Amino acid sequence: MKHKKHRIVIVGGGAGGLELATRLGKKLGKKGLADITLVDAQNTHFWKPLLHEVAAGSLNAFEDELSYLAQAKWNHFRFIPGRMASLNRGNKSISLGPIIDEQNRQVVPARTLEYDQLVISVGSTANDFNTAGAKEHCLFLDNRKQAERIHTTLINHYQHAQACEDDVSKLRIAIIGAGATGVELAAELHYAAIELAHYGLDAIKPENLEVTIIEGGERILPALPERISSSVHKQLLKMGIRVRTGQLVSEIKSNGLLTRDEEFIESDIRIWAAGIKAPEFLNQIAGLESNRINQLIVKPTLQTTQDDQIYAMGDCASCTLTNNGESVTIPPRAQAAHQQASLLAKSLISQVKDGNQSLEFNYKDYGSLISLSRFSAVGNLMGAITGDMMIEGTLAKWFYISLYRMHQMTLFGKFRTGTLILKDLIIRTTRPQLKLH
Ligand SMILES: Cc1cc2nc3c(=O)[nH]c(=O)nc-3n(C[C@H](O)[C@H](O)[C@H](O)COP(=O)(O)OP(=O)(O)OC[C@H]3O[C@@H](n4cnc5c(N)ncnc54)[C@H](O)[C@@H]3O)c2cc1C
Fold first, then answer.
1. Has residue 297 got a pLDDT over 70?
2. Measuring from each residue's beta carbon to the nearest atom of ligand 1, which residues come in under 6 Å?
3. pLDDT given for residue 390 in this prediction
4. Which of 218, 241, 258, 315 qualifies as a cystine partner to 236, CB 3.0-4.6 A?
């Protein structure tokens, strides 16, 4: 009987999943040691931390998207488009929902896919905590389509104001949540207002774009050290961005939002950028352990607690490690997804090649950086030599960009990443600084 090749299926080709598929494809797929399959609900990969730039228009998503089929061909893995809907641990298979086109026609029927080892890396979305009116009256920033929708809405307001000058001259945008996403988006929108006026859409003057960030906690960037939060807060105020802390939003309406203190904040555009949760379908899927935000609970080896052949990583996993007697839960960040992908690649390769045990994940926090658009960046670097060092300005901006370049390096190697950097520099001199349509 012909010996079947070992099958590793990765669901979700985001910051973590695509890096893992690429590494496994090169080391196992290429040598015929295992079949590596990547499944994603989309046909192209877009690195999520760039979404706020797409929303504001400072980045054109088409230039930075990557076709899964092409990446699979170049790196010896297989790509299957589809959205995972359920899991059958008994016969080790997952089911993918049908693919339906925009005219509601079925393009691909529902399918099942068998695995020997399964990695779930389906990321997270914003958590609106079921706030009344949020789904109906807010825009979200979880994927490329949503980011493009924010951009189109913004441009539509500007074009309307331009055509009916005496009608609208002010645009009020409310961003709910002052985590990294909300703060970076606010700064990016401030930059967009300046650029739009520069290119002639000047009916709404930059000072008349009123961006307000509303945060439930006592300070912005609650997950970061206080000194970073206070430095960023000052810089936001300098840009004219309004910051309202200690304000819990209780209801969203079509023309604004209501806080728990019964204050009504009027706004033309509302963007929900608070909290995260893993996709609903993961909630106790096939008896796997999950938490209240649907994340799968994993051991330090990234194996799920109930099934050693199923791994989870990135934003959809909850991984708690013990470090010097202290419990640390890994934060939902691209940096964590990147490190988990690289550990899991080593672990799965050594299991397939040498029959070794799963390796344990050890998280290194290299610090956090907040980009304030073209103006600045603020953050801290954590290292053996530097300790916990706060950085600002160009140096911080440089480190911020390097996170994306590291992702590209894993996907494309050093030479192609170098070429892409060069391409980006050339494009900057030949195109407007903002997407104007
Ligand atoms: C605007 C914004 C800015 C950010 N900035 C930063 C930053 O500066 N630094 C930082 O460290 N982190 C940042 N983050 C967080 C970072 O993007 C995430 O932590 C990271 O992308 C998580 O990686 P992941 O692989 O777990 O999931 P993702 O990168 O979200 O990828 C998940 C993938 O799974 C696919 N998928 C989802 N459901 C299914 C399904 N049912 N079936 C098949 N496929 C599915 C999706 O299409 C997607 O490709 C930011 C996030 C946002 C939204």
1. yes
2. 11-17, 39-42, 48-49, 51-52, 83-84, 121-123, 141, 180-181, 279, 314-316, 332-335, 337
3. 79
4. 241
